[in-house]
Amino acid sequence: MRVYHLCFDIFTSSLKRAERVGHLMPDGSGTVRFCFTPLVSHIMDLAEQRQAAIVLTNQSPTSTASYHLFGDAAQCPPRTRQHTLNLINQACLRADPNDLEAYTREAGRLGLLGVHEPYWRDWGQAEPSLFLTPDALHAWHKFFFDHVITWVINMISGDELDRRLQALPINVGVRHWKHGVSKLKQVTGREHRDLEKLIVPVIAGAVSADVLCSIRALVEFIFHVQGLLIYDDHKHTIDQALLEFHNYKNEIIKAGGRHGKRGAILHFKIPKLEGMGRVTYNTAYMGAPYQYTSDITERCHITHVKQPYHQSNPRKCSEQIARSMDPHQKVPKYKSLHPFETYTRLALPQ
């Protein structure tokens, strides 16, 4: 884990310097401007957020909540940079950071990983509770498929859910689930969103009214937090939707929705659920969270890795994938500089 933060330290050193003294950089129109580069957002999933916040898996990366508080509606104070740095100082007083085993043991007792120099420590006033922004793709959409759909399947059975989805009439613009969803393993964010639109009316009548209220509240929360502009009344609606879920969530347990390999699960200690309660706090300082979604970067896995891989010789494919980006970047630039010449070369016979 120390290597992770050391690597970030190295390749963000120029950004840290620019944050302190500024740097001349061209904007989108080519105008050179004097810019500063504070750490505003580090977009990543929950596991990576824990690495950045240097906390154990039973701790929240953005608040002081620990595992036994993850299912509560009440929110804990934010995990500020000063709070984390103070814990690091306490761990350093108990054990020498150069003694990795001893330091990791003492840091673990404080809920930290064995890292004493997080990469953001000297990046201005970088605040982990703020720059670890909510990621819509992983924090909400994947949560919906991994948990909410699983609860529904446990309550009404996968066959019944599939039957109801298959019975829906085919409409333009609405995905038709002719094979159902209970057997799906690999799905994309697009499928997550399509299910969110349908799940409440599909399960109506198959679950109790209170269970339906809890599921509807979560879906309402997910739809509201994706707003491009979020005002105070929107934040109130978001908080009320999450509070409504917490008021009815025990009905899901009573209906058998929370069930694991070892039997019934009688709690909602889910890390991503705890993170949902931090959305309005983060929005007040950082703006609408949907601007920080990882949808675009995840899409790049297809356009910049998978597609070039299929066009390459599988042997030493990494170099071929990297080189394939050159012509894709140079051709549009050449066309923009020589539009007429490019047209005549293509249009006129040789």
Automatic annotation (TrEMBL):
It holds the Pfam family Plavaka. This is Uncharacterized protein. It comes from Athelia psychrophila.
